Amino acid sequence: MKLFQQLLIAPAALGLIAPVAATANELNINEGKTSDVVAEDLYAGQFDDFETTTKLSGKVVFNVGAINLDDDVAGADMGDKLTSGYVVQYNIKTSFTGEDKLYTRLKAGDMANTPWENTAYNTHLKDAHNSTNAIQVDKIWYEFPVGQFKVWAGPRIENSSMVASKPSIYKPLLKSFDLGGNGPVYGSSTSPGFGVAWVQPTESKSDFRWEVATNYAASGGDDSTRGILTDESQGKWLSKVGYGSPRMQVSLAYAQNICRSDTTCRDWAANSSSTQGGTTTGDSRGLGLRGYWKPEETGIVPSIQVGLDQMDVDNTTTGTETEKQSMWMAGLTWKDAFQDGNKLAAAVMSPTIASSIRGGADDGAKSGLQWEVYYDVSINDGMTVTPAIFGAQDISDGAATGHDDYLGAVVKTTFKF
Questions:
Q1: Which pTM does this prediction carry?
Q2: CATH class as words, domain 2-416
Q3: Which of the listed residues 16, 135, 176, 372 has the most CB atoms within 10 Å of its CB?
Q4: Domain spans of the chain, in order of start
């Protein structure tokens, strides 16, 4: 299957890379920013009578680090050996009308046997991927306007990609801090999906405005035995209402996580799990509150990001089961810290826990704590070196039998083009 997938991907990738290489000296590259890498000559006559514009950007990430896990119970020991990994990512954006976008993301990585792809203890890096060095189509969808609405549809998309604006301005090191807390509300999987969003028209993009979005993704939508919008496919409805500006925003999201009728529910908070405390066998629904604020000028006062999730679970069997889930997160970012172009960031969170358990000895699971601190050093416009430390107290691998502490450190080098 992998060979067949690579045979499909390779000609498409070569077809895109070849014209870029042929006109490399004509690319408009301005200060190395990814949004400025534009293949201007890719539009003429390549899609019949349509004029198209294709933009190619990407990044390469190297990382090296280690984690010391204080494993109090028998479980997955990540060890404390120094390990390295890489990720290569290419973003291809094509517009046929100037207002639409066909988005394709290609990725490759080698992090299978490292802590950087591990979700058990939330050590999964935001910039992590494992494909055993093979190029894969990681994301692909099409978005287009319908009046004042934006519409998304595609075979590989996440719910969080189909909202009018991101709920968080905090740029995380670990994936569990993504989206203001990658918990059960915003947590999702790459699946077939569709969505629509509306943003209140204003005279300036800096004005305060309302936004509304709703979307659906089905993790079994690419399986003919499960399908889309069925009880057999674990689907997710996500709706978000927000008010604010690029400097500050408050938003409220509603998520309905749908279980398969013949299996245990998927863990929508896979990258933000302290412990579930019991099985989850029914649909869940709840709210995610997010808020952020940026100062007008960089300085001592940081940007602030907060997030909170609360979920109710409808279990279908008896026994020790989760009834309620909760998660919170807070992050700070100082731009131009110590030197122009550099960035200091820190965040703390209580990963998703079963705050109420039916049939358990305790009223709720033990709440763990996770944190990270990193410093972006801008070498030039296209290269950043990021030393970071992170850790957790009383965090679990998902089992209710024990809790562990760990301390980790990593140095990440990012090349953007």
A1: 0.83
A2: mainly beta
A3: 176
A4: 2-416
